[in-house]
Amino acid sequence: MPEVAIGLWCIAGFLGTGVLAVVLGGRAIATPLVYGTTLVIALAALLLALDVLLGGRPATATVLPIGLPGLGAHFRLDSLSAFFMLVVNFGAAASSLYAIGYGRHEHAPMRVLPFFGPFLAGMNLVLLAADGFSFLLSWEFMSLASWTLVVSHHQVAANIRAGFTYLAMASFGTLCLLLALGLLAAAGGEFTFERMRTATVSESVAATATLLALIGAGSKAGLVPLHVWLPLAHPAAPSHVSALLSGVMTKVGIYGFIRIVFDVVGDFSPWAGLVVVVAGGATAALGVLYAVMQRDLKRLLAYSTVENIGIVFIGLGLALAFRANGQGPAAALALTAALFHVFNHSVFKSLLFFGAGAVLSATGERDMEKLGGLVHRMPQTAVVFLIGCMSIAALPPLNGFVSEWMTFQAILLSPQLPQWGLKFAVPAVGAMLALAAALAGACFVKAFGVVFLSRPRSSAAATAVEVDGFSLTAMLLLAWVCVLAGTLPGFVIDALSPVARELTWSALPAQAGLPWLSIVPIAESRSSYNGLVIFFFLVVSGVMTAVVVHRLASRSTRTSPIWDCGYPLDSPVTQYTSSSFAMPIRRVFGTVLFAVHETVDMPRPGEMRAARFRMRVRDPAWRFLYGPLVRWIMRSAQRLNRLQFLTIRRYLALVFAALIVLMLVVAIWR
């Protein structure tokens, strides 16, 4: 059976789980049975993707007699779609395993179970679609299925607002993709990607289609300023769905951009790379600045996704620029770094959302100001969450470091680019990436320290208990992948070679066979990295330190006052909070970029009440773009609302005036 047919059967299986959930209704068996079924199907699709990606199999295609008359539905499975199928279904399998335990806490499971499998089906269908109509139909199906999951907790008004914002941005993104594919289809004469790929398009059409694809796919991925739905929708959904939205669905947006721009458009100007690089740099820097100022744990993770999407687009922009200038090896390095970060982010962001879900189910809190001390109550969750924090902060020897290090290596090759705009812009973007990496470290020191260390700040945190075995197993699996992909990155890089060769006509040298399992992406004299050596050094040094301390430490017990940072009171109110930890960064960047407004209400002398501190951080995208646009639409709608209360004579006059205008337009057009 052709590989693409197996993929379609897996998609049918995902759709079938929605029917199964409806049939089972609200029975207790529904949660483990539905999620267990999606786990099995996701593993089957994962094995299919691995077989295509690692087995060097040629692309397979099929046409189904559905869809538009005379067109049919075209589906194709190649190395690019196989890689993203691996990302999607690995995340789906981990989320399904996690949800077997976490789903028991859902108070309305029938608002989640019927749509979970169809959401997975929609993402996989986008990856297999090989014509414009099937692609857009699958894209919209994915958006609608995920919207139902975002508004599953519909009793909360903020979740309804999040769902509305998400639906509006998704519709806008689909419109841009429709226009991009329409331009390319007009040039090729057909809706199939194969015909578009071989058609000759003008530079203006290629540039317009690239820009529309960047906007349309970037809105789904979370590029600034198209990211506004993301910090609203991701916290609103259940945590295992949040992991899919943030760690997986945003990668489908990246796939849409790569498929249209790298594959279908093909020939483009180096300036397209400049636009994408600058957009990625701004997204990375602003995303992490948004994140570091948050006190809601899931909202912090959502804004962190914006940062990592920016890192991916930096690599994609560099690959576009290098490829347009005929520099194949450099383009392969940049593209491999971007795809490696796609995989890495899907792993550690899913792990962190699982950890946030574990904290939420154990304490009922997402507000970091009400947490603390959970390392004693939830030690296993604390360990895996720490691994995720270290990975997303790009600390060696974990996987997040490798892909960011490779991105920096690609940036260091930018002097080879002949365009002066790129020569100036790429180093500046490299500085923004370095700033983002430093701020990410501060952000996740805050996240882990405030949530898991120090003393509990609420009774819920003080009485928390460890989560179930299914949830822990899923988190441990992802933590091990973070370690393995960081210590043995050569195997991942080699697995990405077919994708790089397909899109840049070049690939990195084989890495897995190098001595000591090092990676040398450019040349041995220029740069190399060995995660395995760093891992063993850290393990051996840690063990030796523990042995030395244990052997040489005095066995006598001594007591002394603890270091209290100047606060003699043994109370949680004397600890660093999320807001106080981020205050220096907020004071430096917040006033200019985020219009931060702080209000301190101190008690007067003699008043027996606590001081109150309020802080408001406004997203510049809402302040300068969406806010004015929404206000203009509301004012226009109120004025146009008068048209609903006219007399019949005025309605007839309006119809007559519209007829005259149309006749004039037709006459002028002719």
Automatic annotation (TrEMBL):
The keyword Kinase does not apply. PANTHER family: FORMATE HYDROGENLYASE SUBUNIT 3-RELATED, HYDROGENASE-4 COMPONENT F. It is found in: Cell membrane; Membrane. It is a multi-pass membrane protein. Keywords: Cell membrane, Membrane, Oxidoreductase, Transmembrane, Transmembrane helix. InterPro entries: ComplexI-like_HydComp (IPR052175), NADH_UbQ_OxRdtase (IPR003918), ND/Mrp_TM (IPR001750). GO terms for cellular component: plasma membrane. GO terms for molecular function: NADH dehydrogenase (ubiquinone) activity; oxidoreductase activity. Its main location: membrane. It comes from the Bacteria. Pfam families: Proton_antipo_M (PF00361). It comes from Rhodoplanes roseus. This is Hydrogenase 4 subunit B. The chain crosses the membrane at residues 6-26, 33-54, 80-100, 112-130, 164-185, 205-229, 268-293, 300-322, 342-362, 383-402, 422-453, 474-493, 529-549, 651-669. GO terms for biological process: ATP synthesis coupled electron transport. Residues 131-413 form the NADH:quinone oxidoreductase/Mrp antiporter transmembrane domain.
